[in-house]
Design brief:
The structure holds two protein chains of two kinds. Chain A is 45% helix and 20% strand. Chain A is α/β, with parallel strands linked by helices. In chain A, α1 links the parallel β1 and β2 (33-37). The longest helix of chain A is centred in the last third of the chain and has 18 residues, at 115-132. The radius of gyration of chain A is 13 Å and the shape is globular. The model of chain A has no long low-confidence stretch (mean pLDDT 88). Chain B is α/β, with parallel strands linked by helices. Chain B is 51% helix and 20% strand. The longest helix of chain B has 37 residues, at 287-323. Chain B is elongated, with a radius of gyration of 30 Å. Chain B starts with a strand and ends with a helix. Residues 118-132 and 542-556 of chain B have low confidence and may be disordered. The chains are: A alpha/beta, B alpha/beta.
Chain lengths: 133, 556
């Protein structure tokens, strides 16, 4: 798998294919392996298969919302502790940040995504994950 | 049934032998770890070819995968005995049928071997399904949190005791935590405290059972309660004394542990009540029913003790108010950048042992409808002690409950609030209590503000109130809830939130106070984010502690 020589595998979860494409292109250009899922259920199945180090998770999705997916990942007995979850939330939604804290998310970026901010947060979470493991 | 044990641990060898005996199973024991890897594999693999029903395997990481393949091919159930969490992870990852953490006693091994019979065997490679199944059974038999056996396992043992002795006693231990513990310290703290409690009970049980004591077993009932089955002396008096003894020793032990690990404040929020019931064998009634009935009786008895204690506390509170038996502790609030003391938060404590914790004291007052009386007393004492504790220019932070505004004597011009320097007093209003009547409330606030008093929104971030409703109160200070600060150095979400709060505060001319800073890493993080003021045990160091303690004893 491409993960072997990449800087880490990131799972991008978003129901909007354009968003996924933009994030994938950016992250791959920075040396990350990217896996993707259009909804929560697919995301959880991908978790089993690709075991990403980090999940970039949209909050507003049909079906399971991002919070539910986040809780499910974080409570997983096997990879819950070693996977970092970064939420993608609407700009300025203060309540979302509390929701993130309550649901065990590790970090968030606001939409529309600022790439510099995104990269910083991806890097710091992967670093924190490395030092905790 | 044939079981193969591949075990190095002697205690486990014995437990396995006993469990196999109870099941009437044939046991083939191989002493693990005697030779090297090759020798071990040579010994074990031929035995597996004889198609036993189950293998209890003390995890050897380099053998695990081979063993899993071999057992799966021959439809042998594999139970991994794990030395530590690392082994558990390995075992789960390679899909064992069951696992246990060492040390494990005969009861545990027995229960697991029994459980194998009920378990649907996973056919192919279904890691997720297997794992989920495993978790379910694990939860059924052993509490995940404490490792104690749950009721089904326990009934088995209780029945045995009842058969053997003709009698047994159930002790029901009820842990009552003050409901605000979670609100005040956050769920992470609550989890940690529950873990300490469980560890302390476990510990207590271990030391007791290693002696000649007949304390038989313990279980966690899903909630925060525990059940012991025990076998008491014949004479009623001795039996009662024994129950008291156990209760007392347990309470001391658990309280000591919580105090050591989480501090006196947290320990003060816990109460332990014990109820007991003695059961006798009756051949006409199913033993399970006798045991269930006993547990219910003991639980009811524990609740009885609780309600007696509660009415005693109300009596204590009335005496406290009559005799003004509260003292004030002043906790320093410092300027984050310079560590200079900016002011003090006044916290009232009861001198009665049971009312030492302010949360408990105010909780009792609320139940007994004495909240205004108690609040008045605490405000008066805090203001009286202000001059000897505070230097000129330092602020006094006073906790106010929104209820207090309805108290007709809580007015700036009434006796107890008619202070010489209202501009040095900051009234802290908690975000936790819902404010229902905003216009009236704001009217009260304005009257105090016009007189020079300042305001702080306390516990911001603990409730659902967003920045908008905080802004509505036009506070001078925002005190961030302890749950946002504890562990902030390792939590980006918390850092993000506090950053947002600080930005908001800066835009509105408000100062932010970080409460509950305990470690240097937390201090460094809030400093770097730009939080203006800081409070917490980190600052109760030699220089301030002497001061704080002095103030406390002077009032006691």
């Amino acid at each position: 798998m491409a993960a072997a020589d990449s800087k880490g595998t990131i799972l991008v979860v978003d129901d909007n294919p354009d968003n996924v494409e933009i994030l994938r292109a950016f992250l791959e250009s920075r040396g990350y392996a990217v896996s993707q899922a259009p909804d929560g259920r697919t995301a959880l199945a991908r978790m089993e298969q690709v075991r990403p180090e980090l999940v970039l998770l949209d909050v507003m999705m049909p079906g399971m919302d991002g919070w539910q997916v986040c809780r499910t990942i974080k409570n997983h007995p096997e990879f819950g502790g070693s996977t970092r979850v970064v939420m993608v939330t609407a700009k300025g939604a203060f309540e979302d940040k509390f929701e993130g804290l309550r649901n065990g998310a590790d970090d968030y970026v606001v939409k529309p995504v600022d790439f510099k901010d995104l990269l910083e947060k991806v890097e710091r979470n992967l670093a924190a994950r490395g030092s905790a493991a | 049934m044939r079981i193969v044990g591949y075990v190095g641990d002697t205690a486990l060898q014995e437990a396995l032998a006993e469990a196999a005996g109870r099941l009437g199973a044939e046991l083939v024991s191989i002493n693990a770890g005697a030779g090297g890897l090759a020798a071990n594999a040579d010994q074990l693999l031929p035995v597996l070819r004889t198609h036993p029903n189950a293998l209890v395997f003390e995890v050897k990481p380099d053998l695990l995968a081979t063993v899993r393949t071999e057992t799966r091919a021959r439809d042998i159930s594999l139970i991994a005995a794990c030395n530590g969490q690392e082994d558990v992870r390995r075992a789960v990852r390679c899909g064992v049928d069951d696992w246990m953490l060492l040390p494990a006693d005969a009861d545990q091994v027995h229960a697991r071997l029994m459980a194998l019979g009920y378990r649907p065997r996973a056919g192919g490679d279904q890691p997720v399904g297997e794992l989920a199944d495993h978790m379910r059974y694990e939860e059924l038999l052993y509490d995940r949190f404490t490792g104690f056996p749950t009721l089904p396992v326990m009934l088995e043992r209780g029945r045995e005791l009842l058969e053997r002795r003709g009698r047994m006693t159930v002790l029901y231990i009820e842990f009552v935590r003050y409901s605000k513990l979670e609100e005040i310290y956050g769920w992470e703290k609550l989890d940690a405290v529950l873990q300490s409690t469980a560890a302390a009970v476990r510990d207590f049980y271990d030391t007791r059972t290693s002696g000649e004591e007949n304390l038989l077993m313990v279980s966690h009932t899903g909630d925060d309660d525990f059940i012991f089955f025990t076998d008491l002396p014949d004479a009623v008096e001795t039996a009662e004394r024994r129950i008291n003894e156990i209760t007392h020793a347990l309470e001391q032990h658990v309280r000591g542990r919580i105090e050591a690990e989480h501090g006196e404040d947290v320990a003060g929020l816990f109460e332990i009540y014990v109820g007991s019931a003695t059961l006798f064998r009756n051949p006409k009634i199913r033993p399970e029913r006798i045991i269930y009935r006993g547990i219910r009786e003991a639980a009811a008895a524990a609740r009885g003790v609780e309600s007696r204690e509660r009415s005693r506390k109300v009596a204590d509170l009335k005496e406290t108010i009559r005799e003004e038996a509260v003292y004030i502790v002043y906790h320093p609030i410092v300027v984050t950048e310079t560590k200079e003391i900016y002011g003090y938060e006044a916290l009232a404590r009861g001198t009665h042992r049971a009312l030492r914790s302010p949360e408990v004291m105010f909780g009792v007052a609320e139940e007994a409808n004495l909240i205004w009386e108690l609040s008045r007393l605490c405000r008066r004492k805090a203001i009286q002690g202000m001059d000897e504790t505070l230097a000129a220019g330092q602020y006094l932070f006073l906790n106010i409950d929104p209820h207090d505004f309805r108290d007709p004597s809580f007015r700036f011009d009434e006796e107890d609030m008619n202070v010489p320097h209202p501009e040095r007093i900051v009234l802290e209003i908690t975000e936790r209590t819902a404010i229902t009547d905003y216009p009236t409330f704001q009217g009260y606030l304005r009257a105090f503000r016009d007189h020079g008093f300042r305001f702080a929104v306390d516990d911001a971030g603990s409730g659902y109130a967003g920045l908008g409703s905080i802004a509505n109160l036009e506070p001078d200070f925002i005190k961030l809830d302890i749950s946002l600060i504890s562990g902030i150095d390792a939590n980006f979400m918390k850092q993000n939130l506090v950053e947002t709060m600080v930005q908001f505060a800066n835009d509105n001319g408000i100062k932010v106070i970080a409460e509950g800073v305990e470690r240097v890493e937390e201090y460094e993080t809030v400093k770097q984010i730009g939080v203006h003021l800081t409070q917490g045990f980190y600052f109760h160091d030699a220089q301030t502690r002497g001061h704080v303690a002095g103030a406390a004893t002077a009032k006691a």
